[in-house]
Amino acid sequence: MVTDLNINDHYKLPKQDDVIFKLVEQYISKRPKSKALYARAQKVLPGGVSYGIRYFEPYPFYTAKARGSRLYDVDGNNYVDFWLGHTALILGHSPPKVVEAVKKQLEDGTHYGTSHESEIALAEQIVKMVPSAKMVRFTNSGTEANMYATRLARACTGKDAIGKFEGGWHGGYDALHVGVKQPFNVPESAGLTSGAIRDTVLLPFNDLEGVKKRLRGKKLASIVIEPVLGGGGGIPAEKDFLKGLREFCDEKDILLIFDEVITGFRLAPGGGQEYYGVKPDISVLGKIMGGGFPIGAFCASAEIMERLDSTRYKRSEYSFHGGTFTANPITMIAGLATLRLLEDGRLINALNRSGDKIRAEVKDIFGKWGVDVQVTGVSSIFNVHFLKGIVKDAVTCAREDKKKLFDYDLRLMARGIFFLPTHNGNISSAHSKMDIEKLIAETEDYAKHYGVS
Length: 453
Ligand SMILES: Cc1ncc(COP(=O)(O)O)c(C=O)c1O
Prior knowledge:
Bound molecules: pyridoxal-5'-phosphate
Radius of gyration: 22 Å
Structural class: alpha/beta
Largest sheet: 7 strands, mixed
């Protein structure tokens, strides 16, 4: 049953819109096998998917294969992929060096559940690259890493309340699943306890005075921030804002957490903290660092991280973390192979230049054809917003014309370019110059023919 509730994770088609419906009909006519798979999926997977945001109308295509910059669907269509597994694949799909390392590991065991050397090697690699990291713990997702980082902050400070920013996405953990989408005062999900919601203070992004005002008289364990709001619209934090936030946290004895699940190993080898020159107390990592396998991690100084040492602390002071698949050897090996390729910064710099080019050219094209578009993002991430004015936070971003964005994304898909509709774009080292030129050319064609409605 499709109800209004599906606006939660994706754009819902308007009831009366012949132009969009024609586009949707074309989509369906080219994807009969995906249609059949979706019908099958609906019987066993709620909403037919394994993650709400992967659904888009009329139904998602089903991927048969992926290689380099390309996704191939079961219907014989292929796409230059600008979604890249939720921004996890900075080297593209199945990069040869990672595949080679993983193949070897497959022969040596897929999961140990005991200590092994590659978990040390990946932790050492992270400590080498991430300025604030001195010790690391691994998880299986960014959500889990944020959850344990929050618990660690609470354990270290003895305080309950935490702060997060409007539009910030840190995964589905109760305490952080607050104020993600507008209206911010409506719970993001059923099943969140009033305690979890009450203990989280929502803060305005890029507005230091606003942060101070909302926190007057409050005692917080931590404030978590994405250096670039990812799901909230690809909006970079202003440097002075981050610096001011760092000083404010020091003054108030609040642990500053950078959620670098997207920005880590992307903005610079040391992530957003290197790019901005601002060090958090705790860093949360994920995505890229798994080399295409499930991962998350949180890291900090030895003084903070020692709270996780079960040999040193009694239960009332110890901050628990663990899990069956933590530091899975395949993920560790894939992550290590990936980070070694990113370490010297050359690949990241090249991607950053391509990101600059895409943002500038897409903006210029729409400007030339008289379409109000803002392109946000930094480094190798970019978001197209159909709106007028400056996008500075998730509040301004929410004014965008989602229908137009859906129309743009669906028309690009018909031309062999994939963005998960209405979500951000990112590039990998597997994207060729031609892949990027194709995006620019198709955007020009779109702006010319369909940009102004
Ligand atoms: C900034 C940020 N933090 C945390 C998460 C959650 O990570 P995961 O989906 O691996 O649980 C995401 C996922 O998109 C993210 O973008």
